[in-house]
Amino acid sequence: MGAYLEGLVAARRQRLARMHDVAPLARKADTPVKRDDSTGIMTRIGTVEARLSELARDRPQQKADKPDHSHPFVAAILGVICRNYAVPLPDIQGPSKCPAIVQAREVAMYLCRKLAPISFHQVACHFGNRNHASVLRAYGKIDRLRMADERLDRKLSELESEIQSPRIHGK
Predict the structure, then answer these.
(1) What's 92's domain CATH number?
(2) CA-to-CA distance for 93 and 90, rounded, in angstroms?
(3) Which pLDDT tens digit goes with each residue over 65-117?
(4) Entry pTM
(5) What is the DSSP-derived secondary structure letter of residue 41?
(6) How far apart are alpha carbons 155 and 159 in whole angstroms?
(7) Could you give the CA distance from residue 29 to residue 49 in angstroms, rounded to a whole number?
(8) 2, 9, 121, 142: which is deepest, by most CB within 10 A?
(9) Helical H runs in the chain?
(10) Domain that holds residue 146
């Protein structure tokens, strides 16, 4: 047990030494510890982890992480999907796995990719900074379902025409 805890402490020291912002904490965690003092080690590890999470929260978000909502189709698509599926925008952009929300999100991703001239990565940024592979999967799934399900095809056609109508864009 002692060797295991020493390994944990050594790994923690290395990780802290690499982080410029927490250099003072690395020196604190470097103090010698008796083998039987596992509670002290765990307390120090907890303190260091709490400080690391504080630093992560305090780190300012980079502007590149935020999606660019300037494309007119993205806002129009999200508005139409929210209205037609009765799902609030934060739920569509959030992590929910509720089937109704997932379907609305997948349809919105499909329409964004199909109607707006933006990449899969850019679409993913509009949906809670997801991975582009999630958008690719949703696009493929809705495309397959559209070919197989006539009702879904009609609904998507209606949504596309509503999104492209002049009253949505204020033309």
Answers:
(1) 1.10.1750.10
(2) 5
(3) 454 455 777 888 999 999 999 999 999 988 889 999 999 999 999 999 998 88
(4) 0.58
(5) H
(6) 6
(7) 11
(8) 142
(9) 2-18, 23-29, 38-58, 72-85, 89-93, 99-115, 120-126, 132-148, 150-164, 166-169
(10) 68-169
